[in-house]
């Protein structure tokens, strides 16, 4: 079971990935989460990636391919994994195929979360995350239980806490309208062409991700069943 969760920034990859992880018992591997952890830890990779990420650009293929190569060799990936945010370029897709072929494996499913660009700004700009777990919240669509608002109706930052750990939530430095424009350009120019790479295998399943989260989840479940 080697799945790719595919979709633009704000499509819901980080929202549905952990649920698929629970359902199938295979880990979700988010290159975005891994890179953010590297930035926080100030590793060599983190220092190289920080500025590119903040501006909404793509980190170099070499760096992310290296991260994924190391990660999928770990024992918990033995029975499969869910890729979130990787591959993002044709070169990454080709390298992934090669890595998997060495183990006699291949990508078995691509779930494409389809959302029009116009709805993504509200999702991105209202997002708060729990950094250590990667859990996503949204001020309007998925507020944390602790959220309190000021008299103008804006959420009070100190009240934004993770439901499970009570730890503070934060906003991502790349979750601005201007960085989003750049991220969407990268998505359409570099990432969307990957779909054509996988379509001939008949493994791409489309999901309408422009609806409430429960509706999206229902379609994701259908997509997982299809072709199995
Ligand atoms: P990454 O972390 O992968 O960011 P991304 O692809 O831009 O995707 P997001 O995390 O923004 O979106 P998501 O689909 O996970 O949305 P979520 O579920 O949280 O990458 C960040 C950066 O790292 C890149 O820009 C790049 O610099 C670098 N990078 C990473 N991988 C790389 C690679 N392979 N190569 C090169 N560089 C790489 O949902 C968003 C919000 O909407 C949340 O608040 C959520 O609660 C809400 N929401 C979700 N679904 C719904 C719904 N149905 N209705 C209403 N609200 C919803
Ligand atoms: Zn994400």
TrEMBL record:
Whole sequence portion shown: 102 to 329 of 330
Designated name of the protein: Adenylate kinase active site lid domain-containing protein
Domain Adenylate kinase active site lid: 127-174
Family per record: Belongs to the adenylate kinase family.
Transferase in keyword set: yes
Region feature (Disordered): 139-172
Record's keyword terms, sorted: Kinase, Nucleotide-binding, Transferase
Comp. bias (Basic and acidic residues): 147-163
UniProt superkingdom: Eukaryota
Presence of the UniProt keyword S-adenosyl-L-methionine in the record: no
Gene Ontology molecular functions: kinase activity; nucleotide binding
């Amino acid at each position: 079971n080697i799945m790719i969760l595919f979709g633009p920034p704000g499509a819901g990859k980080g929202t549905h990935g952990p649920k698929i992880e629970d359902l199938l018992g295979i880990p979700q591997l988010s290159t975005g989460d891994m890179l953010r952890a590297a930035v926080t830890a100030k590793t060599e990779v983190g220092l190289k990636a920080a500025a590119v990420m903040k501006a909404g650009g793509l980190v170099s293929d070499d760096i992310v391919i290296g991260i994924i190569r190391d990660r999928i060799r770990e024992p918990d990936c033995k029975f499969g994994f869910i890729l979130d945010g990787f591959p993002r370029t044709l070169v990454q897709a080709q390298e992934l195929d090669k890595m998997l072929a060495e183990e006699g494996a291949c990508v078995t499913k691509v779930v494409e979360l389809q959302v029009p660009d116009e709805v993504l700004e509200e999702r991105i700009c209202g997002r708060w995350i729990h950094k250590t777990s990667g859990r996503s919240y949204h001020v309007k669509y998925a507020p944390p239980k602790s959220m309190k608002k000021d008299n103008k109706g804006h959420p009070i930052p100190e009240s934004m806490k993770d439901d499970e750990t009570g730890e503070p939530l934060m906003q991502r430095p790349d979750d601005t309208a201007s960085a989003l424009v750049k991220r969407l350009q990268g998505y359409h120019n570099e990432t969307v062409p990957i779909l054509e790479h996988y379509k001939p295998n008949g493994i791409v399943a489309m999901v309408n991700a422009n609806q409430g989260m429960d509706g999206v989840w229902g379609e994701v479940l259908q997509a997982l069943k299809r072709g199995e």
